[in-house]
Design goal:
The chain has 403 residues and is an alpha+beta fold. The protein has twelve helices and ten strands. 45% of the residues lie in helices and 15% in strands. The strands form three sheets. Strands 1-4-5-8 form a four-stranded mixed beta sheet. Strands 2-3-7-6 form a four-stranded antiparallel beta sheet, with no helix packed on it. Strands 9-10 form a two-stranded antiparallel ribbon. Bound molecules: flavin-adenine dinucleotide.
């Protein structure tokens, strides 16, 4: 395999970096320093800037406002966004729903929903998981019964990220209770302002509010909001989840986290030097950096091959499994680098929009220390969402190892 980066790709990186340096507002970059849970208003402003440049949805087909970048260029773009601490974009809409609508949506749905997603004007959440249906998603029970030109939806979704901000939810609902579990599921777009929708917060270990329960009580949804065929929801969800697992390798995030680890460790004293000189810590960091680099190359190989590789689903599981484990380890190493200073949860005063509002107590006189402990706790979730590690291992065992 040729590991050299083509001069054209290097030039592309410079172009993207110059664009971000020029266009990313300073106040947004400052608030993005903890690198997760970006404020909605910051995301909207940043997406509008990207959209004006034609760069808000680079991975969509060009006919829907995407770019014709190569997979490597898209990866470089993500890398540069993370390096600059740009807000994390609305992944749900751009990465999950967008490709589904581009591929399976009606022309009316594409015209109605894709432009406001690209411009950051409408916010979406993903309504798949239910209290009794997470890993075993096919057992979901939220019902959508046809009533004239509407569906009437009743049910309960859980762990719904950013539902409290969302204008819309794309949900898996059961439209045919008699059919086999997978075949009776449909993919429905539901306006979160519809009468009968209730959103309740779930507070997480990091003292943050990003997760929610969403309850539907006799919610009327126009039948025109059904994506594709009735009963086709399972295959659209599989299409989407394969994509989710590729992006869930979160390589660019982990690279950024490792940069942060280096920065924090350089500021911690150890004997006459810094923590970077402590052999055990230095070995852990070097090993992790090497593993993340290896994963980055694996992601690029998959991105090049996925269009034709019939085992894309299983390969995506490998990336998800490995990427989420490395992400957790990088976050733990950042906490180790903070040492005793990490004992304070250390909420960022500017991030009060998602925290319970505990008294701010910055542990180190350093911007990079802000939010590290909270982020370490939240990163624990990376081996759960998008499909838990145990489930990924089962997919790999069956599809790749033929066990
Ligand atoms: C931070 C976060 C954000 C999320 N955001 C969303 C969202 O926006 N929308 C959404 O729909 N969902 C979301 N989820 C839900 C997520 O997809 C589920 O948590 C996940 O699929 C696991 O389901 P569960 O929580 O019901 O756990 P369960 O399925 O009950 O699993 C519990 C444990 O049992 C293990 N297990 C289950 N089945 C098997 C098996 N067959 N073999 C071996 N082990 C097994 C699991 O690995 C896990 O360790 C989010 C979750 C988190 C943590």
């Amino acid at each position: 395999m040729d590991f050299s980066i083509h001069p054209a790709d290097q030039a592309f990186r410079q172009e993207v970096r110059a664009f971000i340096d020029r266009e990313l507002p300073g106040d947004i970059a400052r608030r993005g320093r903890h690198d997760y849970h970006s404020p909605r208003e910051d995301v909207r402003r940043w997406m509008q800037i990207l959209d004006r440049h034609g760069w808000s949805a680079p991975h969509w087909p060009a006919a829907f406002g995407g770019t014709d970048w190569t997979p490597l260029q898209r990866h470089i773009f993500q890398d540069e966004l993370r390096r600059a601490r740009a807000p994390v974009l609305d992944r749900c809409a751009l990465d999950l729903l967008g490709p589904v609508l581009c591929t399976f949506g009606s022309p009316e749905q594409q015209a109605r929903f894709l432009p406001p997603i690209r411009a950051g004007e409408e916010w979406w959440c993903q309504g798949f998981s239910e209290p009794e249906a997470g890993s075993d998603l096919a057992s979901l029970r939220t019902r959508a019964e046809r009533d004239g030109d509407h569906f009437v939806v009743n049910g309960h979704k859980i762990w719904t990220t950013e539902a409290h901000y969302a204008d819309w939810i794309f949900a898996l609902v059961r439209t045919d209770p008699e059919a086999k579990p997978q075949q009776g599921i449909s993919f429905l777009l539901i306006d979160m302002r519809s009468p009968g929708v209730t959103c309740r917060p779930i507070w997480t270990l990091d003292e943050g509010h990003t997760l929610n329960e969403v309850l539907f009580e006799d919610v009327r949804v126009p039948a025109a909001n059904l994506v594709g065929e009735a009963g086709g929801g399972w295959s659209y969800a599989k299409f989407l989840l394969t994509h989710e697992r590729t992006t869930s390798a979160v390589v660019s995030h982990t690279k950024r986290d490792l940069w942060q680890v280096r920065h924090l460790a350089a500021r911690r004293r150890w004997r006459n030097g810094s923590l970077l000189d402590e052999p055990l810590f230095a070995t852990k960091l070097a090993r992790l950096e090497a593993e993340v680099t290896a994963l980055e190359w694996a992601v690029m190989r998959v991105l090049h091959a996925s269009a034709t590789d019939s085992r894309a689903n299983a390969v995506a599981s490998v990336l998800k499994l490995r990427g989420s484990e490395l992400s957790e380890r990088a976050a733990l190493l950042a906490a180790e680098a903070l040492g005793d200073h990490g004992l304070a949860v250390c909420p960022d005063p500017e991030a009060a929009y998602w925290l319970r509002g505990r008294a701010p107590a910055p542990p180190l006189d350093d911007d990079e220390a802000i939010g590290v402990t909270a982020k370490t706790m939240f990163r624990r979730a990376t081996t759960i969402y998008g499909g838990a590690s145990e489930v990924q291992r089962s997919i790999i065992a069956k599809s790749i190892l033929r066990l």
